[in-house]
Amino acid sequence: MSSAIQKGHGSLLLAVCASLFCMPFMMAGVNAVLPPLGLSLHASARELGLMGAFYAMGLAVFQLAGGSLGDIWGYRRVFLWGVGIFAATGALLGFVNSVPAFLALRFVQGVGGAMFNACGLALLASAAPEGKRASYLGYSGSAVYAGIACGPPLAGLVAGNLSWRWLFWGNALACVGVFLLMRCAVRLDWSPAKDKSFDWKGCSVYAAAMTALTFGSSELADAPALAGGLLAGFVLLLALFCRMELHSPHPLLDLRLLARNRVFALSSLAAFINYSSFFGVMFFFSLYLQLGRGCSVEQAGLFLAAQSLIQALTTPLAARLCAAFPPGRVSAVGVALCGLGLLVCGFLRLDSPYWLLFAAMGLLGSGISLFALPNTTIILESAGRDHVGQASGLTGAVRTGGQLINMACITLTLGFFLGDQPAGPENIDAFMAAMRLDLTIFGLLNLLAVGCVLARNRS
């Protein structure tokens, strides 16, 4: 794809892709070092779970706001703020000795990640020459999947030889490099809505809604009554948010764009369905390999990293296919492969041959790349230049929201099959029943996403 880079855009691509590597690297890396981290901070199992939930909440709360702020104040400016926040909190996290301080800083780090994620995509989409947007976004997609693949093994190496604290310090140093590169070598910037005001009321209601969704999803197993109340609050707050946005002169998310732009709406819906279905595969396969197949933590981690590696390698292929064929057709093939891979996973047994597992992971890895890149390209192009920031923020919001919905579905299913017992070798049959049911449902959901993509293509 190197020939697709316009002169003067190299530093921009390097800065954005490096930042988009750092964010998923930290998410996957922290999950891999939770045991020594929890031991050092004297954290309970519940508090370890909250470490991921607080980070996800920061991302969920500020994805839309980050894109909207970029539209108003400039994508480069907000990108720099986000990277600065991410680096500063990362450095501070390396010195933390208490769980409450760790959780607070992880939330703020998620906010910073949401800002540079939304505005980084907006910068690439705005800078890309006509017809080259898929190529530019292809680099960013490969960086994200490479970060996911490298996170667990590199984090384990750092924690084993130094300390989990060096994971945060090292990432903070990398983000300082990204900040300096963007600050000193990139002068491009866009602010298509600089005369508009920021929708603080809508942002507050949306933040409350996503907070309720995040904690409602994470509390389903331990406190179902509380979780039900939080999820009901999420629905009510989301309805209030939609009502406010429809009557706002400068909305955080222009719902009228969704109503009048069929391509934009169906592409976003297909993305939400897809993200709601495949996020749980990593969770299920990690337990399946360790509890059901007797793999070590390291072996399971390497196996799971293979899917992200496949995604990183096939994303450039997706960019080339988008240049040769309509992106809508490429994304339709991708989401169909995702559905097929999930259905294959739904038929796995404890004695299934390993080639079947690799085939399923290959279908999922290639399918996600072939769907996500062209679908994101379509979303950003259909939104128009004036709404690139909002569209970038929405892309991140549907991803995070889909993952939270997926988490809630898995929690409910495991609670039904296993009750309050932790998954282990003694109840592996019940766990397998829950896994097969969920993955089969998620595979069928992707057929619904195929319908959305085909309906969009006809538009």
From TrEMBL:
Domain Major facilitator superfamily (MFS) profile: 12-459
Pfam families: MFS_1
UniProt xrefs under PROSITE patterns: MFS
GO cellular component terms given for this protein: membrane
Transmembrane intervals: 48-66, 78-96, 102-124, 136-160, 166-186, 198-217, 223-242, 263-288, 300-318, 330-350, 356-380, 401-419, 439-455
Superkingdom, natural source: Bacteria
MF terms in GO: transmembrane transporter activity
Membrane-related topology note: Multi-pass membrane protein
Location within or outside the cell: Membrane
InterPro entries, sorted: MFS, MFS_dom, MFS_trans_sf
SUPFAM superfamilies named in the record: MFS general substrate transporter
Entries under CDD domains matching the protein: MFS_MMR_MDR_like
Keywords assigned by UniProt, alphabetized: Membrane, Transmembrane, Transmembrane helix, Transport
UniProt keyword annotation of Nuclease present: no
Protein's name according to its UniProt entry: MFS transporter
Organism: Desulfovibrio legallii
